[in-house]
Amino acid sequence: ARLPELLAAMPKAELHIHIEGSLEPELIFALAQRNGVALPYASVAQLRSAYAFSNLQSFLDIYYAGASVLLHEQDFYDMARAYLARAASENVVHAEIFFDPQTHTARGVPIEVVIQGLHRACVDARAELGISAALILCFLRHLSEEDAFATLQQALPLRDKFIGVGLDSSELGHPPEKFARVFARCRELGLHLVAHAGEEGPPAYIWSALDVLHAERIDHGVQAQHDAALLERLARERTPLTVCPLSNLKLCVFASLAQHNLPQLLAAGLCVTVNSDDPAYFGGYINDNFTQLFAATGLGVPHAYMLARNSFEASFVDAGTKRAWQ
Ligand code: HPA
Ligand code: ZN
């Protein structure tokens, strides 16, 4: 088969997807209308035309504005169902989905509304589409550690509905160690731990995500390229990197996909995976990420198998399921 067909058809896991980043402009407008929320854009086309980013922060400003239409449990359900249907159609058999509760609780939406809606979508998608899905609660790193602790406290009655915690939002100026104590608490609670690090931030942020937070996976991590000792460690420990090629392109982390360093990271022996990050904003779901990256960099069939296999190795599914999938 041709490479694009193989990339689309191969079973894979998606491990770096922000559910609020799967909110398509059409759904933003439909929810705005349903909920009586005023948007600063006149049309779907006008909103879409605002999707031109120069760095992470320029994206986050629009991403948080888009999430303002989410008010009721059904809104969170509809958003997650739409993503899971799309993911299943792209042969994603397992998804570990980030959500940002503070984006919603800050607007007065109770955390139960957020988590119950997302969880119900995961349960129904499993039954109706056969896709397995789990939730990872992300703390917003531009807010305080105290705010993260309060969010964790609010979420704990729903502890059985998420498998871990992560760290996202504005990276520069907000190093992982700012969240040392809340991650230590999450570790005691037996939650899985991941963190965005080395998207725009320096290799030092990856080191502290590993050594201070004890992150089991690094989200993005592409700046590890500039630190040979770090590359050696990530390869030796097989710490997964959840890389998002189209996100890196659209946020100007790399000037072109041809210059993306995923091929070098893979060649250095790291457990690299391919993911979509915020597909509604970055112009492609997971298979577009694979296809465009492979076309631009000349990766081939053996790399496709390696990346699919890595996605299962890097996932938090139980060991038996992992063996069956790999
Ligand atoms: N980086 C940091 N925060 C985010 C991202 C990202 O790529 N996507 C959504 N929130
Ligand atoms: Zn991300």
Automatic annotation (TrEMBL):
Catalysis performed (reactions): adenine + H2O + H(+) = hypoxanthine + NH4(+)
Family of the protein in this entry: Belongs to the metallo-dependent hydrolases superfamily. Adenosine and AMP deaminases family. Adenine deaminase type 2 subfamily.
Whole-protein coverage range: 47 to 372 of 385
Binding site residues for substrate: 278
Site keyed Important for catalytic activity: positions: 220
Active site positions: 199 (proton donor)
GO annotation (BP), single: adenine catabolic process
EC number: 3.5.4.2
Keywords of this entry: Hydrolase, Metal-binding, Nucleotide metabolism, Zinc
Gene Ontology, cellular component aspect: cytosol
GO molecular function terms listed in the Swiss-Prot or TrEMBL record: adenine deaminase activity; zinc ion binding
Residue positions binding Zn(2+): 16, 18, 196, 277
Binding note for cofactor: Binds 1 zinc ion per subunit.
Cofactor: Zn(2+)
Protein's recorded name: Adenine deaminase
Organism annotation: Extensimonas vulgaris
Entry function: Catalyzes the hydrolytic deamination of adenine to hypoxanthine. Plays an important role in the purine salvage pathway and in nitrogen catabolism.
Positions of the Adenosine deaminase domain: 11-326
